[in-house]
Write a structure and sequence with these properties.
294 residues, 22% strand, D-Maltodextrin-Binding Protein, domain 2, alpha/beta, Arc Repressor Mutant, subunit A, two-stranded antiparallel sheet, 41% helix, 7-stranded mixed sheet
């Protein structure tokens, strides 16, 4: 039985959604617009469903089209991973390496490693992207990333996961010099802190319960997407919170942030690099060795 849904048709749907129009999809796929239109019309005819509907001058996916695209992208990604695995088996070197950098790590700390790697293998594609808290571990577990740098806490209990200590992070409770707590000369209690807004970084997990760390239970919060934005928000006086010392040394030195003395001592926590134990790609192994020696 001939299946109506072809790999090519899924690529067309994906390109239309990503690029925003049939014409832009045609450019992305190096095809004429009429070929894109024909591909969609034939797929709709073969399936007996409408995949797009008109909204003003735009064509948007119907509910059926959205489901087809979502499931279709899983197939496209699976085929892409299969091709990558085949190439890797042949040479031992991945053609692409996906690295998730937890928000606690400044990308400036990662770029020297990338530069060093490119001296060895300039043709391998490196994809860097940012994750937060549980999202870092999830990116490895679900295959979005081959390596995570800076994950909080060790998840060695997860089957098939390997991790190694990257560094110990020292935390400071800090505020803007214009914040009311900046004028406190003595030790500040938890009750005093809870009267003021805290700034938190949102967990980037997609399919697992989000984590929250170093937040007071009764405190109103401003939620931001990355640690860099948390630092910026606290410098502007929009809230309070713990920040890693290695990311704010300059701001503390020039007075853009000031430390608040707490009842409890500032904590120190470990962060890790992590990867799937069954991934033996040579590019991944190179990064693992280099991170071990940092």
């Amino acid at each position: 039985m001939v299946q109506p849904i072809s790999f090519e048709a899924l690529q067309v749907l994906d390109a239309i959604d990503r690029k925003g129009s049939f014409a832009a999809a045609a450019n992305a796929l190096y095809r004429v617009p009429s070929a894109i239109t024909y591909s969609v019309q034939k797929l709709e005819e073969d399936l007996g469903v409408a995949l797009f509907k008109k909204e003003g001058r735009r064509s948007v996916l119907t509910p059926a089209g959205k489901v087809l695209l979502a499931r279709g992208r899983e197939i496209l990604e699976a085929v892409d991973r299969l091709a990558e695995t085949t190439r890797q088996v042949d040479s031992g070197w991945e053609s692409r390496l996906n690295i998730a950098v937890d928000s606690i790590v400044d990308f400036a700390e990662v770029y020297p490693l990338i530069e060093e790697f490119y001296q060895l293998k300039p043709d391998i594609e490196i994809n860097l992207y940012e994750e937060v808290l549980g999202g870092a571990w999830e990116s490895i577990a679900e295959g979005r990333a081959d390596l995570v740098i800076g994950a909080a806490e060790s998840q060695t209990s997860v089957q098939g996961m390997r991790s190694q200590l990257l560094q110990q992070v020292h935390w400071k409770f800090v505020v803007s010099p214009n914040h009311p707590l900046a004028g406190e000369t003595g030790i500040v209690s938890q009750q005093q802190i809870e009267r003021h807004r805290g700034v938190v970084v949102r967990d980037s997990s997609r399919n697992t319960a989000p984590l929250t760390m170093r937040v007071f239970a009764r405190q109103p919060v401003l939620s931001v997407p990355t640690l860099g934005e948390k630092i910026r928000a606290q410098m502007l006086g929009l809230g309070t919170g713990y920040l890693p010392l290695h990311r704010i040394e300059e701001q503390l030195a020039n007075g853009e942030l000031v430390e608040v003395r707490m009842e409890s001592s500032p904590e120190t926590t470990p962060v890790f690099s992590a990867w799937k134990s069954n991934n033996n790609g040579r590019a991944l192994q190179w990064f693992i060795r280099r991170l071990e020696n940092l």
